[in-house]
Amino acid sequence: MKRVYLGAQKHAVGFYKKLGFFVYGDPYIEVNIEHIYMEKISLG
Questions:
Q1: Are 40 and 24 in contact (CB under 8 A)?
Q2: Distance CA 5, CA 22 (A)
Q3: Please, are residues 39 and 4 in contact by the beta-carbon 8 Å criterion?
Q4: Which residues pair with 5 in a beta bridge?
Q5: Beta partners for 35?
Q6: CA 15, CA 1: separation in Å to the nearest integer?
Q7: What is the pTM of this model?
Q8: What's the CA gap between 24 and 32, in Å, rounded?
Q9: What is the DSSP string of the chain?
């Protein structure tokens, strides 16, 4: 199993969801921009 994770800017969440990522955790602020953690798990 392979896990890919990232911190996405809030406005880009829809883009990453289309690629198969899911939101997890709480939002956080980085450089005055709201971010959220996202991950994608693949079996290959």
A1: no
A2: 9
A3: yes
A4: 39
A5: 9, 28
A6: 23
A7: 0.86
A8: 20
A9: -EEEEEEEEGGGHHHHHHTT-EEEEEEEEETTEEEEEEEEEE--
Q: Is 5 left (phi over 0), alpha (psi -120 to 50) or beta?
A: beta
Tokens of 11: 């406005």
Residue 4 token pair: 């890919």
Alpha-carbon gap, residue 30 to 44, rounded angstroms: 32
Contacts of 25 (CB under 8 A, 6+ apart): 36, 37
Predicted confidence (pLDDT) per residue in 1-43, tens digit: 999 999 999 999 999 999 999 999 999 999 999 999 999 999 8
